[in-house]
Write a structure and sequence with these properties.
By secondary structure, this protein is an alpha/beta fold. Helix content is about 45%, strand content about 15%. It folds into two domains: about 5-200, Rossmann fold; about 220-440, NAD(P)-binding Rossmann-like Domain (Rossmann fold, 3-Layer(aba) Sandwich), CATH 3.40.50. It has 18 helices and 14 strands. The protein binds nicotinamide-adenine-dinucleotide.
Length: about 450
């Protein structure tokens, strides 16, 4: 069993650390955020993620998982160090590598025996070699020659099903050029390796590229169906029928063919922009991805126009009260990073609307994300409280609990009968039967 330190106990670091401990490894999750670590030591889990609490409790109880703020100590005591810090977008769209560099330099300042450094953060092609360079520089300052290898092991988990995804991945990607490190990585992922999870070994650059190419492809797929949906609206087709039939084609696949208000979250927006920048830097523009980024921004604003159009055209949103259900960028998470709800709510407020908002998990995050439009917002206690006295209902996130609204009650609570289903989770007929005016996407 490997002895692992995970630097960064955020979404990816915490889930990876807990699940790697569940595979039988000994794991220390380390973060500079003292409050987060103190909370974890008391059993307080800082993210909303189904199933994670049980995995953490099981493994802390078994003595395989611990939490610490002592980076140097964690690095010294373990021979496999995962870097799972954030790589937020910089001003020009490129990934900001300052946290990765910081972690790498700290590793160089602390290791004194052979160590495998595993990059799990999403980083531009070439970063693995930079990480090796930063570690080497720090070792040179210490006048030491300590052997180490750098591995790229991108993460594909999805927020909301992160534990399942980590423990049942479609593939494990290991970018690495050393036999010794490859052997240790097989130990780390022994449970998956033995169950014949596809295990893809590549060089560092390919592993780094796989992550960006995968995320960008999914963003393109969503954007493609969004554009087709917009065309369906004009052409009299129903995008749900179109997507269903397209998805039955094994070469296309049904996933990520659901039209909506645009993609958001902590990964797709930043990773597509980073890939655009990488393409520009190498003189190989990624035109499809560049266009995708632009269309996605337009799609969010298009939702505001769509609502305005339905309510009676230019100026019709002014002084109206709208109920907004769903603020997180997708269900089963409290994450609002780049959620379409932000642009859409701000757009509606700009046009003079007042909003009664509700999300089952993201209300805390919404409090500070919406600070600039706070005085136009009412934070409701549940979905029906949001709908009460509103003139229209707008569904922005497909939480399960929004799929089964009591439609006659919705009709009674709304003062005008507008029902905007921007995730296509209802059938027109059932909504219209309740006396509501249904507006979906692409139909
Ligand atoms: N969130 C996802 O769904 C997801 C999925 C796949 C890949 N990724 C990638 O994984 C990486 C991490 O993403 P995240 O969502 O977990 O980020 P996050 O912001 O939730 O967590 C990052 C953590 O790193 C900590 N940190 C920063 N510098 C540190 C240091 N020097 N030492 C110790 N801790 C430090 C921060 O305090 C924070 O807790 C990113 O590159 C992201 O693109 C994220």
């Amino acid at each position: 069993m490997a002895h692992i330190a995970v630097i960064g106990a955020g979404y990816v670091g915490l889930v990876s650390g807990a699940c790697l401990a569940d595979f039988g490894n000994f794991v220390t999750c380390i973060d500079i955020d003292t409050k987060k670590i103190e909370g974890l030591q008391r059993g307080v889990v800082p993210i909303y993620e189904p199933g994670i609490e049980a995995v953490i409790a099981r493994n802390t109880g078994a003595g395989r998982l611990r939490f610490s703020t002592d980076l140097a100590d964690g690095i010294k005591k373990n021979n496999v160090i995962f870097i799972a810090v954030g790589t937020p977008p910089g001003e020009d769209g490129s990934a900001d590598l300052r946290y990765v560099e910081n972690a790498a330099r700290t590793i160089g300042q602390a290791i004194d025996t052979y160590t495998v450094v595993v990059d799990k953060s999403t980083v531009p092609v070439g970063t693995g070699r930079k990480v090796a360079g930063w570690i080497r520089e720090e070792l040179e300052k210490r006048k030491l020659h300590v052997p180490f290898d750098v591995v790229s092991n991108p993460e594909f988990l999805r927020e909301g099903s992160a534990v399942y995804d980590f423990t049942h991945p479609d593939r494990v990607v290991i970018g690495c050029e050393s036999e010794r490190a490859r052997g240790i990585m097989k130990e780390v992922y022994r449970s998956l390796y033995l169950t014949e999870t596809p295990y893809i070994e590549t060089n560092l650059e390919s592993a780094e590229m796989i992550k960006y190419a995968s995320n960008a492809f999914l963003a393109v797929k969503i954007t493609f169906i969004n554009e087709i949906a917009n065309l369906c609206e004009k052409a009299g087709a129903d995008v749900q029928d179109v997507a269903k039939a397209m998805g039955r084609d094994g070469r296309i696949g049904a996933k990520f063919l659901h039209p909506g208000p645009g993609y958001g979250g902590s990964c797709f927006p930043k990773d597509t922009r980073a890939l655009v920048k990488i393409g520009q830097d190498y003189g190989e523009p990624q035109c499809i991805v560049e266009t995708t980024v632009k269309i996605n921004e337009k799609q969010k604003l298009r939702m505001v126009e769509k609502i305005e159009q339905e309510l009676g055209g230019s100026g019709s949103v002014n002084e109206k009260t709208l109920a907004v259900l769903g603020l997180a960028f997708k269900p089963n998470t409290d994450d609002m990073r780049e959620s379409p709800a932000i642009a859409i709510c701000e757009g509606l407020v700009k046009k003079g609307a007042r909003l009664r908002v509700w999300d089952p998990a993201a209300m805390g995050e919404a409090e500070w994300r919406f600070r600039s439009i706070r005085d136009k917002l009412f934070f409701a206690a549940d979905e029906y409280d949001a709908i009460t006295g509103s003139e229209a209902l707008v569904i922005l996130t497909e939480w399960n609990q929004f799929r089964n609204l009591d439609l006659p009650r919705v009709k009674r609570l709304l003062t005008l009968p507008y029902f905007f289903d921007l995730r296509n989770i209802y059938r027109r007929i059932e909504v219209e039967n309740a006396g509501l005016r249904y507006v979906g996407i692409g139909k």
